[in-house]
Amino acid sequence: MHSTSSLSRRERLRETTIEEIKEAARQQMAEQGAAALSLGAIARAMGMTTPALYRYFENRDALVTALIIDAYHSLADTLEDALAPLPATDYALRLQTLLLSYRLWALQHPQDYTLCHGAPLAGYEGAADAIRPAALRTLKIIGFLLTEADAASPLHLPPSYFQPPAPVRETLEALQGVFPERDIPIPLLTFTIMTWIQVHGLIWQELSGHLPARLLQGGALYQMEVQLICQRLGLALP
Amino acid sequence: MHSTSSLSRRERLRETTIEEIKEAARQQMAEQGAAALSLGAIARAMGMTTPALYRYFENRDALVTALIIDAYHSLADTLEDALAPLPATDYALRLQTLLLSYRLWALQHPQDYTLCHGAPLAGYEGAADAIRPAALRTLKIIGFLLTEADAASPLHLPPSYFQPPAPVRETLEALQGVFPERDIPIPLLTFTIMTWIQVHGLIWQELSGHLPARLLQGGALYQMEVQLICQRLGLALP
DNA sequence: CTCATTTGTTAATGATATTCACTTAAATTA
DNA sequence: TAATTTAAGTGAATATCATTAACAAATGAG
User: Fold this and answer.
1) Domains of chain B with bracketed CATH
2) Residues 52-71 of A with CB under 7 A from strand D
3) What's the pTM value of the predicted model, to 2 decimals?
4) What is the pLDDT of residues B40-61, one digit of tens each?
């Protein structure tokens, strides 16, 4: 170990192989759907044999978990990039952009989105604890944005969010502890979760719901709902 | 064919066998989870060989589709049964009961709920048309209830729901045509969809989301949100 | 150079869905 | 009733999947 860099040559090669495996997996998902993910096909595309993959991932589920975590990070990165160039105090614009970018990412990466939010496939025992930090980044982004907006000019929130029943308050306080960076007040955290659930619900219906296909396509209903969320908050253009 | 009944003896036996297959499938799902559904295990439990199942279902996906349709009907039946004994004009109570019953059914039949709303399996898109009528029963129940409540005393709806942009209006009118029994006005239909999406989102998070497990358990947040939905509608106890 | 570790291979196991050819049982028809 | 058509079920075979074990080649450290 001579270690000018923190990674040895071997470790570097290993990392690139892992990336190549995941990239092949994503490629395959894009072509055949998230459910058709097969170790054999990945190995074949890489010119390897199947068992070799087990040197890099304990099993198929571990690979899926890694893909999910990557997907959540990719989503959060995209959201941050979308917010970065916007004026810092135009919170209405920021929130709208955030939510519309969320939908766009989902539509542009339907396989990843399905992997993240779909039902555990083929005996996949979700590694919830490993995934959670990546998943919560998105919630953080929405929550921090709302917190900043609220600090600038108090948002209109449902009065019930200020007096949650005891079990709700306890669980929300526990979730609060997950964001050590900044403090999201309980009412705002509640609204954040509800907004995220609403947004996700609309997108999931559009991607794989049982409603008539054309009902949600194009995102017109989605945009309407985003506007409504802003209105309810009392968020206006500055 | 002597046919006092509309089904011949053979057809009746066939029906019971089909029921037995689905029951074995549900049993297996309850024990091992929805993803572990296997034709071999079903046949084994019935004392048959695997290929025999193909006399009753074209393939595995067809069985899954049948299970999904059954599940949606079971859910809708449960909702109707929950509403039946309630006073016809206490719309606040009816809506609350409806939404709380929805969650209870989902928690009591998590495998069926997962089957209905989980990620679509490979090559599964074709089944959407077969599933839709059963899936829309639930939407109908919510929509009709809101329509009745609105007729008795106009509900408070977001103003934007009354002036949807053209593409939204078109797709909603198309969906309206799916309910020939009664006419659900566009604004109410919009609210119905949004309510259902919200409710489903909360439940799905509770069942298989990536948030901390205890956040949604117990349904305290769910109840709070149901109350909020009623408040926003201006629905009060009579 | 030597030895241990890493990375890959081939072969084998047991599970899966599905198809085919064949048999047996039942229902229909002559 | 006898003959014949139809349905239901079996067993063997195929092709795929994930996974494990035993072994060989490459690689890096001392």
Assistant:
1) 1-58 (1.10.10), 60-233 (1.10.357.10)
2) 54, 59-61
3) 0.93
4) 999 999 999 999 999 999 999 9
